[in-house]
Design goal:
Number of helices: 2
Oligomer: single chain
Strand order of the largest sheet: 1-2
Radius of gyration: 15 Å
Length: 106
Amino acid sequence: EEHHGVVEQQAYLLDQMAGVPEGDGTLLDNSVVLFINETSRGNTHSHVDMPFMLAGKASGALRTGRYLKYDGAHHNDLLTSVLHLFGLEDPTFGDARFCNGPLPGL
């Protein structure tokens, strides 16, 4: 039995989604896939400088191929942004104390 790393599995998922025709594009073009880790540093369980990866174009609402950095933003800000990609204009996601609203320029 062959075991694959997490990143290999992510690539496999995205490749499979990109191979499914849907409308004028693919399943991946019409989706948003969010990859996260539970902590930014395993030895300290820090949430500072936490990496997130978004894949897909959300039917054209999300521009791909970029690296963005949001200093001081909460992960709930990203989750609020994802809601907005789907047309849900909620001002916050989760505990409002840890949410400043959607991320600009996403």
